[in-house]
Specification:
about 550 residues; Rossmann fold; alpha/beta; globular; five-stranded parallel sheet; 3 domains; binds nicotinamide-adenine-dinucleotide
Length: about 550
Amino acid sequence: MTEKFTTEPRGVDRLRNPWLNRGSAFTEEERDKYGLRGLLPPHVSSKEEQINRLYGIIHQYELPIHKYITLESIHANDESLYFQLIARHVEEFLPIIYTPTVGEACQKFSYIFRYARGLYVTSEDKGRVDDLVANVPNKEVDIIVVTDGQRILGLGDLGANGMGIPIGKLALYTACAGINPQKTLPVCIDVGTNNEALLNDPLYMGLRHKRITGEDYDALIKEFIEAVRKRWPNVIIQFEDFHNSHAYDLLRQWEKKVPCFNDDIQGTAAVAVTGLLSAMRVLKQKLSDQRILFLGAGSAATGIANLIADAMAEEGTPREEACKNIHLFDSKGLVTTKREAEISAEKKPFACDLAPTDSFVEAIKEFKPTAIIGVSAQKDGFSKECIEEMARLNKQPVIFALSNPTSKAECTAEEAYKWSNGTCLFACGSPFGPVEVNGKTFVPRQGNNHYIFPGVGLGSIYARTKEIPNRTLLMAAKRLASLVSDEDLERGSLYPPLSDIRNITAEVGSAVADYLFDQGLATVQRPADMKKAIKEFMWDPMHPHFVVGQ
Ligand code: NAD
C-alpha cells in the first residue's frame, strides 16, 4: 500500500475515513499501528473475500435502486473497495451507478440521502463561494463535474436532487479512466427549482424557491468557476445536465477561458458520431453521403449535428452543404426556415426549406433520411410506422434511439430490429439485451457518453490543457470507432464491448492528449509513448494512493 499521510488518522477516525478505511482487510500489523485492535472482527479478510461478500449482499436485492443504495454505502465507507467491486463487475454495475438507475436515484435523492459527497453552492452563497471551496477536504482536484439540476437526463428539473449525476459521472471517471477518486469533485449549483412537486415535498433537500436566472445566475457560476480555479488552477470542468437555455451560453462564455466541455452537447456528439462511423463501415459509404433527421433539437441534437457537419467537412464536403443534409424536428415539428417563431442560433444552420409538418413520419417521407437519431426524451417517438418507412426507404436504415433513461427511449431495440425486419443499424442510449430476428441475434450496444467523456477528461488532465476545443471530440470519436471490431459489427454492435472500458478509455484519452499536444495546448512535457504514459497515469483501485490533510 502506497499511502502518504500528512496526518496519521488512527482508530475510529481511520475506520470512518473512506479514503483510508480498509475495513476487515486491515492487516494484523496495521491494526496495531493504527490503534484498530478490538474495533474489528478478528479475521483479516482478503480483498477477494471482501469483494465476494459485498457482491453477495448486492445480489440479494432485486430492484436496481436497492443495489444503488448499497453500492453508495460502500462508496461512502471504503472508496478503493467500491472501485475494486465496480472494476470486477463493470458491465453489471455501470447501469446501476450511472444511467439508467442513477435517474431513479436522482428522483429519490432526498429520500435515500445518507452520506454527504461533493460540494453544494447555492444562490445564498453569493460572495462566500471561496469559503465553501476552502472547506472541500480534497487536497488536489483534477476534475469537477457540475450540474444545476435543471435537465437531469430526460427527467427534467430535479433541482438539488440532480447531484446524483455528478456523483455517478465521477464514479465513472475513476472506474473507466482511472482518475484518483480523491482528485474528483461533484458539484451541485442550487439556484432553486421550478419543479412544483419538489417545492411542495417536505423531504426535498434543495432551496425552496423558483430558479434564479439572468445576471444573478451568471454571477454565481462565475464566482464558482473562479473559486475552484483559484484553489486548483489546472482543474477541468465538465458541465452536465444544464437546461438548453444555459448549456450553450455557459460553454461559449467559458470554453476559451478554462479547460471545460459540456458532456450533453459535446460528449453525446462524439458518441453519436462514433456510431455513425461504425455504421458507415457496414454500409461502405461516407458520412457525407447521409441524410440525417433528428427527433429532438436540444443540446444533444444540435451538438451531434454540429460534430457530424465537422466530420462531413473533414471528408471534403463544404460545411454549409453538409448542414443541408442534416435536419431537426422538435416539439413544434420540423425545423424549417418558414417557422414564424425565432429559431435559436444553434438550430438555424439546420433549418430546412421543406414544407412545415408536425408529423415525424411525414418529415421522414419528405426528407427521405438515411439515418434518424432520437434525442427527444419521448418514449414511442419512433413509431412502428416511422421505422417501417425508414426500412422502405433504405436497405439498411440507421436508427439511433439515444434518449435516457430507458423509460424515455424513442423505441426499444426489439422494436427497431423487428419493425425494420432485422435490417437496421441500431444504437441506444439505454441498455437493451440481445434481440433475435429472422434467426439472427443482434447485440445492440449503448451509444452512451460513458465511452467518451472519461477519455476526454483523462487526456485533458494528463496534458494539463489550457482549453478543450470542440475538434478534440472528433478525435475521441475517431479513435473510439477504430476500436470496433468486424466481429462487433457482424453482431450489430456499433460500439466496442464495455467489459474493456479501461483500455478503451486509455485509447480515447491518448487520442485526446495527442491532439491537445499537437495544438500546443498542453502545458507539460510530451511523453515519447503516449499510450504507455496514459496507462501508467491511471489510478488503480488495487493499489490505492490517497493523501490526507489539506
Ligand atoms: P433538451 O431538453 O435540450 O432537448 C430536448 C429536445 O426534444 C427539445 O428540442 C424539444 O423540443 C424536443 N422535444 C420534446 N418533445 C418532443 C416531441 N414530442 N417531439 C419532438 N421533439 C420533442 O435535452 P437534451 O440535452 O438534448 O437531451 C435529450 C435526451 O437525450 C435526454 O433524454 C438525454 O438523456 C438524452 N441524452 C443521451 C445521451 C447519451 O449518451 N445517449 C447523452 C445526452 C443526452
